[in-house]
């Protein structure tokens, strides 16, 4: 297993300054492994709340947790949401000696409850699968094909990786979604998820998808919200302002893990990926996620106008606006769309991420940047 030092440092800082730290992310992304690695250097007590014995231990949670000291880890906290009130009581006690580390997979539910009950007491850390800084940059092809889930990326072969992802999808649909209290038939969600794979890197069109599935726009929107809230899908919101052009005002949809996208598109190996009609869209989503892991902006957007201009990613740092364009070409060239984005949005700089080997200036404010050098993006 790869060491995830950047996340360990984040947890250490968060635990030091906040009585409660919540690490959120999809199932099987390594939350439990990370927490156990962190706990090795400190006095800690671990509760797996999906375990029946640990559920019984926490029947009188205030007394049990209140008697502990050091670090208390509560894995799969969403299984017992009543613990949020208990934690609020415990951390507000003057003699409190405990720091709590919560791990959870259902972000909307946890964030809502924590925001209401633990306001001012909790710090959130979002954990994803492996990114390019955690693996060797020479492994970017495997990371793209297999995705960042640890067991998928580290599998012995592409076939083993694909088999794990198929099992993950089935378990997610048949067990995880019902456990969240969401009553959507697994078959219907699988159909929607598969259809959504063909809309990857496109703007959201609820009516078109709803007609295809024979459901209402409201229903299809609820399906999307489920997949977004469980870290499967990213809705990248549009940026719009008065630039004298008719702008796109609906979000773009991306699979957050390229490996799951490839499973739903029946892409099992490198050669199939390169020959697939969605290879460009897949590359766009993969490179976008890697860029966001590096930059970690407070807000990120795409920008587009109906006349044809578009920017894949726009973010701000201080008073500066920056842009990222993603091209599946080893030697990308300047396009009219890049010039339009640079001028209309008044970007300080624009990077064009590509799968090639070399970085080179394309213009005074435009740089071609290979994915292997993505750490050069501003942070």
- Total number of helical segments? 16
Largest sheet: 6 strands, mixed
Strand content: 15-25%
CATH class of the largest domain: Mainly Alpha
How helical, in percent, are the residues? Answer: 40-55%
Q: Please, could you describe this protein's structure?
A:
This protein has 379 residues and is α/β, with parallel strands linked by helices. The chain folds into 2 domains: 122 residues, P-loop containing nucleotide triphosphate hydrolases (Rossmann fold), CATH 3.40.50.300; 240 residues, Winged helix-like DNA-binding domain superfamily/Winged helix DNA-binding domain (Arc Repressor Mutant, subunit A), CATH 1.10.10.10. Helix content is 42%, strand content 19%. A 6-stranded mixed beta sheet has the order 9-10-11-12-14-13, with helices on both faces. Strand 11, helix 16 and strand 12 form a beta-alpha-beta unit. It is globular, with a radius of gyration of 22 Å.
Summarize the structure.
This protein has 379 residues and is an alpha/beta fold.
List the helices and strands and how they pair.
Layout: H1 5-17, E1 20-24, H2 31-39, E2 44-48, H3 52-57, H4 61-66, E3 70-75, H5 83-91, E4 98-104, H6 107-117, E5 122-126, H7 140-146, H8 150-153, H9 158-179, H10 186-197, E6 202-203, H11 206-213, H12 217-229, E7 233-236, E8 252-255, H13 258-264, H14 270-274, H15 279-295, E9 301-304, E10 310-317, E11 320-326, H16 336-344, E12 349-354, E13 360-363, E14 366-370
Parallel strand pairs: 1-4, 1-5, 2-3, 3-4, 11-12, 12-14
Antiparallel strand pairs: 6-8, 7-8, 9-10, 10-11, 13-14
């Amino acid at each position: 297993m790869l060491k995830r030092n950047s996340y360990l440092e984040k947890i250490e800082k968060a635990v030091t300054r906040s009585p409660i730290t919540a690490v959120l992310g999809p199932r099987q992304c390594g939350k439990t492994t990370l927490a156990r690695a962190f706990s090795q250097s400190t006095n800690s007590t671990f509760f797996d709340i999906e375990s029946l014995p640990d559920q019984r231990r926490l029947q009188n949670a205030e007394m049990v947790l209140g008697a502990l000291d050091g670090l208390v880890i509560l894995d799969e906290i969403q299984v017992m949401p009543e613990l949020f009130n208990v934690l609020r009581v415990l951390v507000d006690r003057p003699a409190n000696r405990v720091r709590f580390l919560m791990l959870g997979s259902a972000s909307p539910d946890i964030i809502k409850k924590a925001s209401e009950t633990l306001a001012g007491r909790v710090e959130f850390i979002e954990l994803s699968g492996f990114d390019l800084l955690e693996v060797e940059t020479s492994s970017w092809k495997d990371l793209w094909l297999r995705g960042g889930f640890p067991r998928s990326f580290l599998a012995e072969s592409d076939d083993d990786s694909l088999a794990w992802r198929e099992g993950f999808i089935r378990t997610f649909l048949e067990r995880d979604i019902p456990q969240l209290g969401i009553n959507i038939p697994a078959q219907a969600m699988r159909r929607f998820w598969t259809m959504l794979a063909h809309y990857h890197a496109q703007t959201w069109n609820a009516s078109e998808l709803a007609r295809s599935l024979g459901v209402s726009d409201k229903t299809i929107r609820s399906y999307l919200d489920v997949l977004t809230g469980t870290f499967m899908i990213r809705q990248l919101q549009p940026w719009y302002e008065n630039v004298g052009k008719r702008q796109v005002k609906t979000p773009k949809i991306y699979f957050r893990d390229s490996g799951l996208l490839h499973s739903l598109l029946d892409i099992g190996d490198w050669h199939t990926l390169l020959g697939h009609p969605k290879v460009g869209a897949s590359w766009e989503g993969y490179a976008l996620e890697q860029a966001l892991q590096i930059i970690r902006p407070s807000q990120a957007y795409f920008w587009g106008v109906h006349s044809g201009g578009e920017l894949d990613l726009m973010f701000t740092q201080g008073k500066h606006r920056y842009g990222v364009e993603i091209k599946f070409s080893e030697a990308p060239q300047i396009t009219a769309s890049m010039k339009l984005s640079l001028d209309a949005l008044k970007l300080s700089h624009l990077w064009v991420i590509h799968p090639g080997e070399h970085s080179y200036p394309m213009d005074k404010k435009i740089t071609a940047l290979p994915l292997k050098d993505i750490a050069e993006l501003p942070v």
